[in-house]
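Input set for joint prediction.
Command: fold jointly, output tokens.
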Amino acid sequence: MLGYALRRLILAIPLLIGITFISFFVIHLAPGEPTELQTGDTPVQSDKEVRERLRQVYGLDKPLHVQYWNWLNRLARLDFGRSFSPDARPVLQKIGERLPVTLLLNIVEMMVIVALAIPVGVLSATRQYSKFDKVTTIFVFVGFATPDFWLALMLMILFGVQLGWLPISGLRSPTWEYLSFWQQQWDFVAHLTLPILVATFGGLAGFSRYMRQSMLEVIRQDYIQSARAKGLPESVVIAKHALRNALLPIVTVLGLSLPGLIGGSVIVESIFAIPGMGQLMVQAVFERDYPVIMGNLVIVATLTLVANLIADLTYSLVDPRIRVAARRSRR
Amino acid sequence: MKGFWRAFRRNRLALIGGVVVVVLAALALLAPAIAPWDPNRPDVKKILDAPSRAHPLGTDQLGRDVLSRMLYGARVSLAVGFVSVGIATLIGIALGAAAGYHGGTIDAMVMRLVDLMLVFPRFFLLLAVLAFLRPSIWTIMVVIGLTGWMSVARLIRAEFLTLKEREFVLWSQSIGASAYRIIWRHILPNAIGPVLVAMTLGIPAAILTESGLSFLGLGVQPPHATWGNILNEGKDAIEIGWWLSAYPGLAILVTVLSYNLLGEGIRDALDPRLRQNVGRIVSRAR
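tokens >
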């Protein structure tokens, strides 16, 4: 088990380098440079000397492969460089401030999705073609088709503007400091409600669909028939024999869907003005802040790889067949 | 083909989806003829007017007619959907066919590339790339296409793995047909069904991505109207003009929904075995 995890970790390193390689060259080869943007709105617009000096400061005057090599070298020492934006703070510090927010958002989102999608999927599979199944199927199709930014706007208009029940931007009210401890907690929850609702919506549709599909396949198996044949009550057959097996593929799907969920937080964070990684990424993209963009990509890719690894490990933990196969192949 | 049509016709939702898809395409094509107003003509006297008889879907911050802008926006959305999926499909077919037919090292390399692309948070990559390319309809199409070919490649590879063992392939090989010819003339036509489904389901995904990027201001740039950038303007006016956000989003929803229904309908009609089997066995078990 440990050996497998280690092997997977080592295999992930070339993957990560591949990702940085592609993105680094795409970003740097594309026309337009951060120096143009920074000198663009100053009176010395056409001052080539200023621009050259900036290029030297940022190391943009060196050949591309040298730049990449230097960047990779610093990365190996966990030095992500400094932001190109006027504050020039270390990239790692900037990301570090925002990572917890995005993680919190994604973890809560994940938990809500799993908690709702599994029962919904199981119910609509065990009652295929029932009214419940039809309603959830419609919900799934609508959920797949709803643009999350539009849903966010509609909820903001309804709950924020018309009804005035929930705050629509940021993580804290302006009066936060003057609130009591419990009011502060409530304030935080209220601010997170709409973003999490929006972020959960699309994912929920997908997962309940997968769960239904997986459950339908399991129910067809012979061992379910035999469980029924030996006289077990239907509830035991479903909850114990079927559910356990139907959950297996979901673990993998969960791991695979992570990039999508994290990507989705870009839109949610920028609509609701939540200071997370997604918002930082959008800002950096508009400012052409190379080091922040690259840092973001590396962190997000690493998180995804780690989450995939965890998903795979969980998979082999819960499925004895895979463990046995792995042991055999090692011999 | 007859069996396919018979199975497809029975699926009411897929039929509705298909009709909506056709109507949308017609509306987009005819936009210049049927748009009631010039989509880019501002009118200071009509800023953020609520929906009325003259402007059925209201006007925006510059007094432009939202309905006309949405009709023109449909052209952009559909064009981006079709072209980017076309690009993705071509790449997916080329790589998937090479991997599935030849196997070995080529297969391993292609599949590693697929893994790499799948692990990548696609939206982050899109953002990073678009920040540095001047965003236009063409760059959006190319970039979405270049990051969306993986599922087609996997699909084609899987089809090729089974098809290449069939007799008609072995016979062509035995009379000395080239790999290129076998792939394009003999195997691919047999794998076209799943590709068609993947394309139909890929178009709405591309439309969603494009509108998301335009919404963030990194997609198709104003004054070109797209559903995404009308929504972006709507975001700044949520307190006054709900119509500016409501209608374009509804248009995206309906479009994506219709394509999805159509795609699933085609899939079920192409492969009726799966559906019937599931239904029959489950009902017998009860």
